Each structure stands twice: as C-alpha cells, then as structure tokens.
Amino acid sequence: MRIGDVELNGNVILGPMAGVTSLAYREFMKPFGVALSYSEMISDCGIAYGNQRTFEYLKTSKIDSPVGLQLFGSDIKNTAKAIEIVQNVAKYDILDINLGCPVHKVVKTGAGSALPRDIAKLREYMGEVVKVSQKPVTAKIRLGWDQSSINVFEVAKILEEAGVKAIAVHCRTTVQGYAGQADYSKIKGLKETLSIPLIVSGDIFTLDDAIRSVNETHADGVMIARGGIGNPYLITQIGHYFKTGEKLPEQGTDKSIEYARQFARSLVELKGEAHAIPELRGILPHFFSGFPGYKKIRLALATNMKTLQDMEAIFTGIEIHG
Ligand SMILES: Cc1cc2nc3c(=O)[nH]c(=O)nc-3n(C[C@H](O)[C@H](O)[C@H](O)COP(=O)(O)O)c2cc1C
Question: Is 171 tagged catalytic?
Fold first, then answer.
C-alpha cells in the first residue's frame, strides 16, 4: 500500500488512541509488524499557542517510522499555523486529520466528527490543510453523525477531491460512540468509488475479524486499535495472513509478562514514573486477560501499582501463582 509518496511494508495499521499510542507504545508495537502507526490526537491550538505538554506528543523516532501525526482542529488559521510549526519541529511521514472524534469537548468546538456535518466547511478546511502540508495528508472519519445522517460516501469523495491520500473509516456513527458493533456493510462499495487507499477500522479483535472486515469492504488496509492493546501478536497474525494466506497459531500467554514489562519500562523512560504509571494502570491489565486470576491481577495493576517496583512485585506474584 502506498500513501502519497510513503510506501508501506504491509497493510496493518496501528490506530490512533489518545492516552495509549505514545511514542513508547508505537515503538513497542512496531516489531510485531505495524506498517504505519498514528500518534494520539494532538490539539492544533495546543501547538499554535505553544503549550509545552502538547509538544510532547510530537516526539517520534527512527523505529517509529513511518508514522502519522494526528491533529484535530476546526479553525483553518490555527490548523495551518500548527502544521507549519509541526513541519519545523517534528520528524514524521504523514499528517492525519481527526474527523471522527465523538468526545463532547472536541465536537463542541467544531472539530473531530463535527466537521463532516458541514460539507462546505469540510471541503474548504481540508483543501487548505492539503495545501499547507508538505507531507501526505490522511483523514479518519466515522460513518456519519447518526443512523439517519450516514454520509461516509459523500465525505470520502470530498476528502479525495481535496487531495487527501488515504481515508480510514471507523465503521460506527458519532452518536454510537463505541456502543454496538462496527458495521462494515455501510462502506461496502466505497473502495470502488475511490482511487486512494481505504482503511477499515472498528472491532478488529481477532484475525477472523480482520479477514471479514476486508472481505466485506475490499479495504486496502486494516486499522487495529483496542484489539492490539495487550495483544501485540494480533498484528503479527494479521500481517502474516495478508502476506502469505497462512493463519499462524495462537501464541498463548507465555510472553505476556515479558511484553508488559518491556512496554512499561519504555513508557517510564519516555515520560518518567509519575506520568507513566497512571497510563500503565489502564493499559497493563489488558496484557493479562485470559490469565487465571485475571480479576485480581487487574485490580492489583489498576489500583495498587504506584511505581515500577510495585509492578515487578505484582508480576512476581503472577509468576509464582501462575
Ligand atoms: C482509548 C481510545 C482512544 C482513542 N483516541 C483516538 C484518537 O485520538 N484519534 C482517533 O482518530 N481515534 C481515536 N480512537 C478510535 C480508534 O482509533 C478506533 O477507530 C476505534 O477504537 C475503533 O477501533 P477498535 O475497535 O479497533 O478499537 C480512540 C479509541 C480508543 C479506544
């Protein structure tokens, strides 16, 4: 798959997740076969007004490449300013615009999934983004605002006409949030109307989910978000299948502690213990789903873990009792 001038070595893409897809997470996931990763969403105003914490999200590395930085915004003046700054300070391959975020705080400013509700504004905004950006621009959208206003075909066409080089669709509406099932059937035939790559997102938790999503949509790539948290091997299974047609066996849980430790250490290295531990409390339990005593492990990691040393003590307990 090719996105503008960026050639991808595969079609499994790591979806953007606020609070998860930090540089440490992306670096950890990469060796499992990620063809392209996306950053957490980054506020254009945070960049344009020089907020130091926002700049932390722009960190990338060689291992991380190719990587897309995802911005959200609604006022093209701010977004254009942010893009110019990002171009000066960050090393990245693709610029992504978030057109799918359903969170009220974002939508009320006209950003995220509010933008595709106003087709004329969307056309103008994305046209300008593409003009300003020196990197290929991609966009991430949902099916539409609600079941009665599904406009994904129209929005995708406008994005393509604006010069966007790939589109990822989370197959839910904004109003759905994360409820219900991703409905791949709603983008059946979309691929055939586009000349740029289509990436399907939503509820890909197993290899069979990935196969079904591509069979139904003919998408060029699959985006893995929640399904990869704590289960990086899912990326390997999917990537291997699409390259060879062969289904790799399940890996089991033998490597879970090793993976969790590796990720935790690199997040602490990136952010320091004080910032990393709260993030790890949400992410680490996923590495142990399916373990005997999972509920206890989750509780210990989510509530008792205050330091890396606590984490190691919890892991030792798992090893002894596991
Ligand atoms: C915790 C979390 C944070 C997310 N943050 C973002 C984000 O910053 N930008 C974005 O475009 N999508 C975001 N998403 C949506 C995911 O990229 C993805 O489209 C969605 O979760 C459906 O895919 P999944 O079922 O594989 O998780 C987020 C999802 C989750 C669960």
Answer: no
